[in-house]
Automatic annotation (TrEMBL):
It comes from the Bacteria. SUPFAM superfamilies: Actin-like ATPase domain. Gene3D superfamilies: 3.30.420.40. This is Ethanolamine ammonia-lyase reactivating factor EutA.
Amino acid sequence: MREKILSVGIDIGTSTTQLVFSNITIENTASSFTIPRIKIVDKELIYRSSIHFTPLTTQTKIDGNKVREIIEIEYKRAGVTPNDVKTGAVIITGETARKENANEVLQNLSGFAGDFVVATAGPDLESIIAGRGAGADKVSDEKNAYVVNIDIGGGTSNLALFKNGELVDTGCLDIGGRLIKIDKDTKKIYYIYPKIKKLAESIGVKIEVGDTADIDKIRKVARAMTKILEESVSVKARTPIYEELLTNKGIKDGYNIEYITFSGGVADYVYNEDYSDPFKYGDIGVILGEEIAKSDLVKKLKVKSAIETIRATVVGAGSHTTDISGSTITYTDDVFPIKNLPILKLAAEDEAGGFDSIERSIREKLKWFNLENESQQVAVAIKAFKSPSFEEIQMLARALINGMTELLKKGYPIFIIVENDIAKVLGQTIYRQLNKSSIVVCIDSIKVENGDYIDIGKPLVNGKVVPVVIKTLVFNS
């Protein structure tokens, strides 16, 4: 059985709003005598929209009506109707995710575009999505090395660090091409992000809204921004101003990073050398790209081309992989169906470090999913070991509970997804250790990755299994 479905990706970023259509081919790869397993066997990007500036009514509010108009126009240009689209993702990223009406705009677009993944990506989650979209995960796997991707957009620079194909760490900085905006006709500055003004002052550069853009001053500021990026990957020693420019956190110091990729709109001016029109986009993105291209980021690290630059965040989106859980599962209450639950998957090295490492990693990585410092419901995915002892199950349950303390404080149900076949005993142990005070859902025989979302349907076969839809953001990598 083969079926071709149409997928849409919609990305509303700090600078740009764009849309991509892809054909996703799915096939049942199971034999005639086993449970169906639907997998993606091919994907073809068939339409890339124009790149539109994200419309704002004020510096703190997205113009939802104009965003919707952009999407409607691009659907018409592509010859697609909403009914044609079977799957996809609508994602608000970067500084735009901090706008006061971001969720309202998101939900409005979701209703127009279909019933699929909808997410306001916090800085860490955006880093993961962009890093995978750029193909940095693949480079790290091929080179058996630490590879960092820096996704430099209009308002933020998102860092994702990979080793052997797995995500290791993330960070985000308030550095981007549209943090100083310039009128293309008058060359007057009409917006300066407060942190960038402070950075300029720290190097003795005075810039004000209303000034005519002085290219020498702008270049000095862009060079200072580039030095912060060098500090972010430990090419240079970190300074106090680095801490000021962090959006939420940086990647840890001390990794032996060998390779670097760049994505985001500014990346086109890191990889390419046409700097003839420095204020081409009414901002400092071209100059920032030029300064990065001359920096120690490219001199001291090995630069690899990104698969996508400005479209790294979403180049196709929301393919559904339907699966059936194992038959040894635990759910202490019928909370189904569950829709659009984001996945936090522990890396192999997190689990290899023992139970303390598992607890610590969950606690730290749950922050990837915070929005405005508020936690949201997340499913924790682990591989776990086969045939664990009674004592090992007890210790694993305790590590998971301790790691998920913030979710428990919020009153969220506990969702655990295990690759190996131990969900029933693990879920029951977690439930007992919580004194039956929280809802616990623990399912197994499901493989997911960071950046995935899942739906869990109503139990089947007298409650023995649950249907699971894995919604994977589909990248060209």
